[in-house]
Every structure is written in C-alpha cells, then in structure tokens.
C-alpha cells in the first residue's frame, strides 16, 4: 500500500487500545515460531522415533560395545572428523582464495571445474579410488612392472586414504561457499589490510579469513555432517565409524534399539558440534553493508602463477579426472550389458525427483530462514537448528524413522476408513511422502545456501521497505526474493545434486517402480559388480554436472 | 492538540539498560527537528521507536493524535506512514534508481507512479540517472536517491538517521542546505539524528540535545546556544569556558575580573558560588582595556582567530577575534567581557 | 457416517490397492538377479509381480511397521542369517507344500517351513595358482596356522557371509576352538580386511597374498570374463564336516494378501526350470539337488557340503560377531 496524502489524514480515528490486544496479536507474536515448528516437525518426528523408541539399553550388547567397539569408534570418529575438516579446509579455502582474488593460467576454467566433484557420490569416488590405487589396481600394477615391489606405496585403504578420499569428495562445499565470500570482499579485505600495514598474506589471515568465516563454517559443517552420516564410503574402506557400528548393531547383532541409541548419540554429538560453532561465533554479525563494485583480480606471475595452476590441477585430477576416467573405462567394458532404455528411465526419474525435491526444499528453507530473520528469538534459532539435523543422521536410520510414523498413520487411516477393504497403503509409497522425507534429509543443504544469502541483506534494507509500507509476505516477495535470487539458485542446485546421489530414503519411500540411477547403482554395487555400476554412475555424474556447471556460472551466490 | 508528533515520557531499554529515559517532546507540522548528541546517547533509538522498529518500555508516541506506540502495543512500521533515510542509505542493489524511488508507491497506477517518481527525481536533481543502479552512483547521489525514495510516498513524517555522515564535509554542507530546502518546499515534517552541531543548526527549527538517554533540552538553535538549560548543554553546544564567580546581586555576579550584570534575573541567592559560562564571542579583544590576558594558544579560522587566553588567576577562556589581530603566543592582550546574557550554574 | 464415506473415497484416490492377480515381493537380493525370473513367471502365468528392493534391515523394519497392512506377499533375501532374523521377528508364516519340501533339501530350509533356500553358494578357500599347491591347503582351521603368516586375505568381519561362516564353525567345533581359529586368521593377514569378496580375489591374483576366503559366485563372475584369472577354489574341510554353504531364500510374509499365489511362485522358483535360471544368472548352485549347476560352476568339481542346517548361521550370528570383535578381526 502507498501512503495517503497528508491532508486526508487529518482526522484520524481515536486510538482504540483494546483492539490491539485481541487474538490476532497473539497469533502475530507466535507466527514465526509456529512456522519454524511446523517445518522442524518433519525432522523432529523421525528423530523422536529414533530416540524415544530406544530408551532402554540392552546390557549385553552395550557391554560388548563398551569393551570392544566404542573406544575405538570414538577415536576413529574423532580422527575422521578432524582429518576431513583439515582436508576440506586445506583444499577448499586456498583454492577459493586463489580463484576469487588472483589471476593465473587456467583460472577461468578452474573456477567451475573445481566444483565438479560435487556431482560424484562419495561412495562412487571411494570405489574408483580404491580400485585405482589399491595393491591390485592399475597404478600399483604398473609400478610393480618397473620396481621390485610396491610395499613403499602408501596403502589407500587406511585412515589417511579415507580422509583423503572424503576430503576430495566434500571439499566443494567449502570451496563454493568460501569462493563466494572471497569474491565479494576478498580484494577489499586485502586493501583494508594494506592500509593498516598488513602484508597481503597477513591480510588474508587477519581480515579475509575471519570475515569469510560464517560461509567457510557453513561449508565445513555440511562436509562434516555428510562425513558422519556416510555409510557407503566407510564400508568400502572397512573403516569402523559410527555408521558402521550402527549397522553392525542392527544387521549383525540384530538389535535395532542399540542401533538407534548409537544414532541418537551421533545426533547429539553433531548438535553439540553445531552449537559450539554457534557459540564460538558469539554475537558477532557478518552483515555486509552495500555492495562494492567487483575489483579486478591480482595477476600472479612466474613461479607463483604456475604453482597456483599446479595446485588447482592436482586437486582437480585427483578429485574428478582420475575417478571419472576410471568410471569411463569400466563402463566401456559393461556398455553392451547396461546400455538400454531402462537407463533413460532411471535418469529421467532421478532428474524429475531431484528437481521436485530441490524446489520444495528451497521453498521451505526460505520460509525457515525468513522466520528466523523475522523472529530472532532463541526458540526459532533452536528450531532452525533442529530442522536441519536430518543431514547428519545416517540415511538408512532416518529412512526407518520416517517410514515408521507414516506406516503407523496409514494403519490408523486404513482401520478407520478402509476396514475390511483390500487397501494396504494410503500415504506410504506416494510421491508426497517421498518429497517430505527428502525435506527432512536435505533441508540443511538448502537452508545453508538461503540463510547465507539472507544474512547479506542488511537490516536497514528491510527497515526501509517496511517504512515504505511493505510487511510480511509482500516484504518477502519484493525485497528478499530478488536479493536472494543467487542464494536460492545455489540452494536448488546443491539440493538437486544431493538428491540425485541419495539412496536409503529413495529406496524406503519410493512409489512402486520408481527406480532411479542411485537405486540402480546400489543394486549393482551391493553385489560387488563395480564395473557394471560404472555406467549408471557415469550417467549420474553427467546429469549432476548440469546443475554443477550452472552453479559455477552463478556469480552472486550465497 | 496541533502537534503532529508527540513523545510522552517515552522510555526504552536494551537488556535492562535504559537507552531512552522519560523523554518527551512535540513537533508541529512542517517543522524540522534535530536530535543531537554524542554516539551512544540513544538518539538513533528514538528514531527507531518512532519508525516502529523498537517497542517502548514506557510512555507513548502519538502521530496526528493517534497513539502509535505504547508498552505492549506497537503499530507495525509499514502502517505508520513514517519515512526514513538510513545512514547507509539501504538502497536496493537489484533495482535501478527509478525503481528504488518508486518502491513505496505500490498502490498507485503506473502512470501516476511514473509521474511521482519523475517529480521526486527532479526534486533531488537526479532525473538523468533514473536508469542507473545504486553501485554506479556516488555517495551524494545515493543519498539523494534514498531521500527521494523516502519522500515519494508522501509520509506524514520523515526520519533521517545521520544522513550525511558518509559524505565529505564540503558535500555535507551543501547537501544539508539542499535537503532542508527540499523538505521545506515539500512541507515535510522531519526529524534528523546527528552528532554534528553545524549540521543540526543548519537544518533544524528545533534541536534536542540528548545525553545518556535523557533529553537535556528541546529548543531552537538560538536558545540552545544562548540559554542552555544545563551545564551539559552549555558545554556540548558551542565552545566556551566555565569561570568561577559569586552572585553579588539579583542580576549580578562577581568574577575575578570584576562585577557583571545581566539583563535577566539569575536564579541564585546572593552569595552563592556559581560557574559562569563565557562564550568566545563574550570575550572581546580591546587594546584599550586595562584587563589583560596572556595568549596561550590560537587557531586560525579564516576570518577569525580562536585564542586561548589565560587570566591572571590561571583560569583559561576562549576569545573569538577578527583575524587581522594577529598576536603571538605568550603576548598579553587587552580584553573586555560583554555579558548581557549571564549563564550561570551552581558549582 | 456420510462424512466418513466421503473422506474414505477421497483417500481411496491416493490409496494403492493390490489386485488379486498380483504378487508383491520385498527383496534384498539384487534386482538384476531376480528380475529375469519374475519376468519369465509373469510371461508364463500372466501374474504381475511387483518388487520393492532395499537392504534387508530396512525391509524387515518396513514389514514390521506395516504389520497387517503390508502389501508384501514374499520376502526374499540372501544369507540364512537374515532369513532366521525375519522368522525371529515373526514376519513369516509357515507354508505346507509338498512341492517345496520335495525340491529343497532339509538343511537348506527352515525346520518349521517358514522359509526355503533357493540357491546355494559355498564360502571356501581360494589360492593363487602360481604360488600355492592345493596339497598345502586343508581347512578353514588350517588357515590359522603360522605357515600362512602374512599370506592371508580376508573380507571385513562386518560382512554377513563371514559372520555366517564363523557362526557355523561355532556350532561345529565350539566357541573356544573357533575363537582360536579366528585369532590365527587375524595374525596371518597380509593386509587390512577388504570391503568385498571381489577385492579379496583380485588381491590373491595380484600376489598381495596367497590364500583367502570368498563366495564361489564372485569367483564365477571374474572367471567368466577372464578365464586366465590365476586363482582357483579349494574345497575346504572335505576331510571333516564339509565346505560351508549358505543360501539365498524366501518365505511367505505373515500378512500376505495373496498367499496362494505366493506359494505357487515359491514352488515355481524351486522347480527345475527356474532353479537353473535362479542359480546360473549369478554362478550359484541350485538348491534343488535334481538340478545341474551351470557348466562353469560344475567345472570346479563336486564337493561335500556341510549339512548342518543353515539356520544356525542366524541363531549364532550375534555370538560370532562378538567373537570376531574380541580377537580384533575388523
């Protein structure tokens, strides 16, 4: 609405005090917590199913776990988390800095190419890397043809190897978010630093890095949540992690309760991790006022330029070129067997599902982020945290947590409305349930992208619009949406790629016959026929490349 | 009640710490006011309360007689028809200048909006830049866009939060006159927040001096300077020195340099110990005067020198002297005091 | 009442209802291994078969959560341990079928007829033909002997096939001897346990180790593509109880909607024609002893099966896992 001219406002109706204490104002007060609560229910319910149904520990199994599994498990998890954290930071941050601030040979191509590993599922990366670098793989076989033995060759199936492979698989999260932060303020940070007497490198450490911290931490937390929830990769490495212990308790010791208890512990650990980050960040705010025009990049010369190119190339080769090449070689061998119409069906369903899920998740992420923006209270902040926890829960456990309440609801509905009829499903096996399940899994991904962008809208920009007569959803539509465009697109693309790669929830909740590329890959890898799995994996990567490339062209993201 | 804006005993606090304490003032339609104070005095919070971004702890705010804010009630900002110009301008980077200015004109038909935007751009002198984007503009231009955007919907009241603080001094002076001209021409009622006296005096019909959340005085610039209500205002506004004195009559005081009598009565009993404010323009250079003081420091200000002078007792005062009287530091010069309006505060 | 009908009909739009000529199978056996059989059955009988594939754990939880409203008629999975667990959770119903009892030997099915083995795989010793003579090999227990120090490759103990093997050994030779044996294996390892059987076989071929344990069909898949693969199977424990075998199998779900059709399908799967397909597609042995194995599989020779009921793999699985944890078998 626009303001009426002053003259018409001369005789305002007298102020009615009571009117403003009626119900709507109560609703107004709790509107945003309510929105956040509804969204977080999608995650809260499955989590509650996991945590609450397993309150009594099985003493025999727990004693065994305490004696033989847990100490090593915690130790392993600690090193894995520290290792992958160090790995993704060492890969992601310097690459982001180089690409955002400097110019060196190949920079333009590295800019997008360094995001390619995002399209490759971690378990696919794992089986190709192990296939390449293990004793019986082509690399060591070739080396043995020239040397006596390859005992000196570092074993790929080791903690170090796992950390390396996971870092290569997950660094793009950090790279992507850090690059966007650096490219909007990196050069300026250097200049400010120089005016304060800091060298360029000191400027990076003391100004650019701390300023980019929320974005870097956002990427890091995504990477670590994926690390902790991962099962496929660690099982290829036969590494004892939380997820393998959960699966062992479930499948081998036949104690789903113990599995759920372990999963609850894992969720608690992650909650603490996220909360610690939040606490360490303290009350500092990271809003950037206004937007400076982009500054030209600094040109690197000589050895430094080639060092930069070399580093980027090395990472790219290890994280994408080699594994993808191996996939191509394998799929060439299995081409006749696997290349058929069904493959297009898998691809089409993968794309359809991922697109629908991505759009839905980003819409919900936007709502949640906006709720947090409108109501900065502790309750909404907590709910937003809870709503995004699903990303850290092992997929299969979350899938059970989702399916159990849906099946329960179905049973109630059937008993009430279809008693005696030949009906076995109302909600389960529908697309709607599947999409909601994806929301509880991937909200963290969409939310981190949208919220990062939301944080760059200044308070005064919002207030200016409110002053000019905008409120509620009109404000969202006319101010936030246009300003968030970049972040929203980033969210859509990141979620799209992630849903493409997802297996456990897809398998648990998909409608009959909804076989996707990931489901096909699971069927083949579960039988150990990696070479046959290679072709659907190649298609998965190629389809995933489309959004990844779009993402890389996205200038103004997050 | 013909005041457009009324603040009645308004209080506000952050985390239990009072930011505004029992503040009251009124603003008539068409008046321009300035809230003046050092940073952290609560002046921006007052604006945000009026705009509707902060809830009140006590008191109420009325606009055109309508109560818009009270404890437990806060009329939503977007319904108040109160415009605001932000310190960082808060322009929308995704919109060009014309769209920024037209942002608040949603209810209007296209043609009407276009006309209004065109008019506003003309008013602020930016018609040529209608299609430019904010990052392509200079600071002063961004400022004017922000002003045009705030004025476009014809708000009942305009708030300006340190609007010139991001600009260089030269531009600041020019723009503050220009903005006052625009506001007056539009008949706009406005409140500006600043920490710069010159700016406040140049812009405002009424100035409120704030200190630690208290409104020290609400008056015209002239009154503030010549009739400060408190020692803080006297000290904060303009320059000057406090000189010890004793009340020697209903309208007279005795300083170390003699007895002076005011045209107005003094509110202290005879014999009371007071401090008398000596403004630089109260101390007049007079070569023929028997009273002399030693030059301790001087600042060249173009047409004048600002001398720091030491009286025999060691007490220092400031003197504003035409700049053709160039005296060296250490030199003793003759002075006399012109104290028609005696300002005294209890010691 | 009216409202109820309206809501019911509204919900019915979304509700999937199973037609009578349809059989729903929950399967954790890889889809590419069962799809050809089901396609053949549908072609022959006109009965539609719907398959839901997932891991066995989630499928069992799914059956449990769905309870009497499960659309599933048959639960098909690999490894007797999983079949035992499903039975233990009460997910199956017993089947009276002379055909099934006649086709499937007693040691390959549940004594109470809750489930039936449909294909057999042996888990035995494999060795590098260039470095090991068959005469040097004997039994699972022998692999614990110090002579194999640094020469043994194993898959992870988290794998159900190893768990079943060790569980069977516990039943055969007792927990103490079994623990000693597994400890010996761990001492003899040439490298950290692998993530899958194929990797074990490839490591033996590459010379990383000389001997290892694997399921026969993994070997079959490699040899079918690469006849020169320098690894051979050795039938373990022929002087004792015989080589460890396990099954893939299926049972009728407790709340099956189409029990008759499901039993018919199981009977068909145990028949000569289907048994060949079922086993051959994956280089396994048919469960039906009247049916000959694939030529490649047959070329590995006849061997004595351990005739202990495969059910023991399930009942002693948790014990086996704890035992392996205790001796540090990763």
TrEMBL record, chain B:
The keyword Iron applies. It comes from the Bacteria. Keywords: ATP-binding, Cell membrane, Ion transport, Iron, Iron transport, Membrane, Nucleotide-binding, Transport. SUPFAM superfamilies: MOP-like, P-loop containing nucleoside triphosphate hydrolases. GO terms for molecular function: ATP binding. Residues 5-237 form the ABC transporter domain. InterPro entries: AAA+_ATPase, ABC_SmlMolc_Importer, ABC_transporter-like_ATP-bd, ABC_transporter-like_CS, ABC_transpr_FbpC, Mo/tungstate-bd_C_term_dom, P-loop_NTPase, Transp-assoc_OB_typ2. PANTHER family: SPERMIDINE/PUTRESCINE IMPORT ATP-BINDING PROTEIN POTA, SPERMIDINE_PUTRESCINE IMPORT ATP-BINDING PROTEIN POTA. This is ABC transporter ATP-binding protein. It comes from Vogesella alkaliphila. The lineage of its organism: Bacteria, Pseudomonadati, Pseudomonadota, Betaproteobacteria, Neisseriales.
Automatic annotation (TrEMBL), chain C:
Residues 1-20 form the signal peptide. Belongs to the bacterial solute-binding protein 1 family. It comes from the Bacteria. This is Binding protein component of ABC iron transporter. The keyword Signal applies. InterPro entries: Ferric-bd, SBP. Keywords: Signal. CDD domains: PBP2_FutA1_ilke. Gene3D superfamilies: Periplasmic binding protein-like II.
């Amino acid at each position: 609405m626009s303001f009426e001219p002053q003259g018409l406002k001369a005789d305002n109706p007298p102020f009615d005090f009571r009117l403003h204490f009626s119900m709507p104002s109560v609703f107004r007060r709790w509107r945003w917590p309510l929105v956040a609560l509804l969204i977080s229910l999608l995650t809260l319910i499955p989590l509650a199913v996991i945590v609450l149904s397993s309150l009594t520990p099985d003493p025999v199994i727990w004693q065994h776990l305490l004696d033989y599994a847990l100490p090593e498990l915690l130790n392993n998890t600690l090193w894995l988390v520290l290792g992958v954290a160090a790995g993704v930071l060492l890969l992601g941050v310097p690459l982001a800095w180089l690409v955002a601030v400097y110019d060196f040979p190949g920079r333009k191509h590295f800019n997008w190419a360094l995001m390619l590993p995002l399209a490759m599922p971690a378990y696919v990366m794992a089986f190709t890397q192990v296939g390449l670098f293990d004793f019986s793989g082509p690399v060591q076989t070739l080396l043995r043809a020239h040397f006596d033995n390859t005992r000196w060759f570092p074993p790929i199936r080791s903690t170090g190897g796992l950390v390396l492979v996971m870092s290569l698989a997950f660094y793009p999260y950090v790279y992507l978010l850090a690059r966007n932060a650096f490219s909007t303020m990196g050069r300026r940070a250097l200049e400010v630093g120089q005016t304060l007497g800091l060298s360029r490198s000191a400027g990076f450490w003391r100004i650019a890095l701390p300023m980019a911290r929320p974005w870097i931490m956002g990427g890091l937390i995504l990477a670590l949540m994926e690390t902790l929830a991962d099962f496929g990769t660690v099982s290829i490495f036969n590494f004892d992690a939380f997820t393998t212990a959960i699966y062992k308790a479930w499948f081998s010791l036949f104690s789903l309760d113990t599995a759920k208890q372990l999963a609850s512990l894992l969720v608690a650990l992650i909650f603490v991790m996220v909360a610690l980050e939040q606490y360490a960040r303290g009350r500092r705010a990271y809003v950037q006022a206004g937007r400076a025009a982009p500054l030209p990049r600094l040109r690197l010369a000589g050895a430094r330029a080639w060092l930069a190119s070399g580093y980027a190339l090395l990472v790219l080769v290890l994280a994408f070129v080699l594994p993808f090449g191996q996939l191509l070689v394998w799929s060439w061998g299995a081409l006749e067997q696997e290349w058929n119409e069904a493959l297009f069906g898998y691809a089409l369903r993968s794309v359809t599902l991922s697109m629908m899920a991505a759009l839905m998740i980003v819409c919900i992420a936007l709502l949640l982020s906006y709720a947090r923006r409108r109501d900065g209270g502790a309750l909404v902040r907590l709910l937003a945290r809870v709503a995004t926890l699903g990303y850290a829960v092992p997929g299969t456990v979350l899938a059970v947590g989702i399916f159990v309440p849906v099946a329960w609801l179905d049973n109630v509905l059937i008993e009430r409305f279809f008693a005696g009829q030949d009906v076995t499903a109302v909600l389960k096996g529908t697309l709607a349930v599947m999409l909601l399940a994806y929301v509880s899994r991937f909200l963290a991904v969409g939310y981190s992208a949208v919220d990062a962008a939301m944080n760059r809208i200044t308070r005064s920009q919002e207030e200016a619009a409110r002053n000019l007569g905008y409120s509620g959803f009109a404000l969202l539509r006319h101010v936030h949406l246009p300003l968030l465009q970049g972040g929203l697109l980033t969210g859509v693309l990141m979620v799209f790629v992630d849903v493409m790669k997802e297996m456990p929830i897809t398998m648990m909740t998909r409608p009959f016959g909804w076989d996707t590329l990931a489901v096909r890959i699971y069927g083949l890898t579960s039988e150990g026929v990696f070479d046959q799995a290679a072709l659907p994996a190649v298609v998965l990567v190629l389809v995933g490349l489309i959004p990844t490339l779009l993402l890389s062209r996205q200038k103004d993201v997050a | 009640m013909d005041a457009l804006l009324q603040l009645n005993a308004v209080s506000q606090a952050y985390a239990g710490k009072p930011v505004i304490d029992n503040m009251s003032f009124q603003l008539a339609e068409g008046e321009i006011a300035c809230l003046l104070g050092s940073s952290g005095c609560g002046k921006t919070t007052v604006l945000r309360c009026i705009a509707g971004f902060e809830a009140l702890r006590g008191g109420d705010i009325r606009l055109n007689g309508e109560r818009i804010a009270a404890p437990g009630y806060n009329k939503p900002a977007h319904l108040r028809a109160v415009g605001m110009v932000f310190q960082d301008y808060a322009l929308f980077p995704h919109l060009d200048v014309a769209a920024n200015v037209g942002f608040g004109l949603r209810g209007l038909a296209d043609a009407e909006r276009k006309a209004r935007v065109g008019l506003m751009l003309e008013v602020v002198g930016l018609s040529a830049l209608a299609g430019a984007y904010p990052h392509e503009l200079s600071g002063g231009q961004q400022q004017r866009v922000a002003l045009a955007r705030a004025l476009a919907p014809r708000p009942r009241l305009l708030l300006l939060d340190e609007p010139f603080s991001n600009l260089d001094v030269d531009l600041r002076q020019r723009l503050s006159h220009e903005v006052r001209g625009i506001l007056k021409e539009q008949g706009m009622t406005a409140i500006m927040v600043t920490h710069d006296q010159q700016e406040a005096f140049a812009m405002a019909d009424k100035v409120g001096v704030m200190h630690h959340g208290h409104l020290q005085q609400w008056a015209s610039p002239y009154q503030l300077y010549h009739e400060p209500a408190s020692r803080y205002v006297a000290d904060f506004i303009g320059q000057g020195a406090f000189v010890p004195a004793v009340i020697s009559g209903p309208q007279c005081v005795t300083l170390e340099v003699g007895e002076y009598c005011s045209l107005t009565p003094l509110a202290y009993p005879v014999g009371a110990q007071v401090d008398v404010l000596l403004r630089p323009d109260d101390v007049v250079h007079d070569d023929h005067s028997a009273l002399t003081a030693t030059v301790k420091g001087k600042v060249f200000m173009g047409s004048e020198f600002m001398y720091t002078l030491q009286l025999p007792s060691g007490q220092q005062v400031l003197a504003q002297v035409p700049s053709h009287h160039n005296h060296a530091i250490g030199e003793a010069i003759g002075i006399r005091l012109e104290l028609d309006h005696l300002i005294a505060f209890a010691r | 009442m009216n409202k109820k009908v309206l809501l019911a009909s509204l919900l019915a739009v979304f509700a999937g209802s199973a037609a009578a000529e349809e059989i729903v199978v929950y399967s954790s056996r890889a889809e590419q291994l069962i799809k050809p059989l089901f396609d053949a059955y549908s072609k022959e009988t006109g009965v539609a078969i719907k398959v839901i594939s997932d891991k066995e754990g989630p499928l069992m939880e799914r059956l449990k959560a769905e309870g009497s409203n499960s659309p599933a008629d048959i639960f098909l999975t690999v490894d007797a341990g999983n079949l035992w667990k499903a039975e233990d959770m009460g997910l199956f119903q017993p089947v009276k079928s002379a055909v099934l009892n006649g086709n499937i030997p007693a040691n390959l099915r549940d004594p109470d007829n809750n489930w039936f083995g449909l294909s057999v795989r042996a888990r035995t010793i494999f060795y590098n033909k260039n470095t090991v003579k068959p005469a040097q090999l004997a039994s699972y227990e022998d692999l614990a002997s110090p002579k194999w120090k640094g020469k043994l490759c194993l898959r992870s103990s988290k794998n159900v096939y190893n768990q079943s093997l060790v569980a069977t050994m516990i039943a055969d030779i007792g927990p103490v001897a079994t623990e000693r044996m597994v400890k010996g294996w761990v001492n003899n390892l040439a490298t950290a346990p692998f993530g899958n059987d194929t990797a074990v076989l490839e490591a033996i071929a590459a010379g990383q180790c000389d001997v290892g344990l694997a399921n026969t069909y993994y070997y079959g898949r490699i040899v079918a593509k690469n006849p020169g693969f320098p690894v051979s199977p050795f039938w373990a424990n022929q002087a004792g109880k015989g080589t460890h075998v396990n099954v893939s199998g299926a049972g009728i779900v407790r709340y099956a909607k189409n029990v008759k059709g499901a039993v018919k399908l199981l009977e068909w799967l145990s028949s000569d024609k289907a048994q060949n397909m079922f086993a051959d597609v994956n280089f396994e042995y048919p469960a039906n002893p009247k049916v000959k194995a694939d030529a490649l599989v047959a070329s590995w020779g006849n061997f004595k099966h351990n005739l202990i009921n495969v059910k023991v793999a399930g009942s002693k699985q948790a014990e086996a896992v704890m035992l392996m944890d205790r001796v540090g078998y990763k």
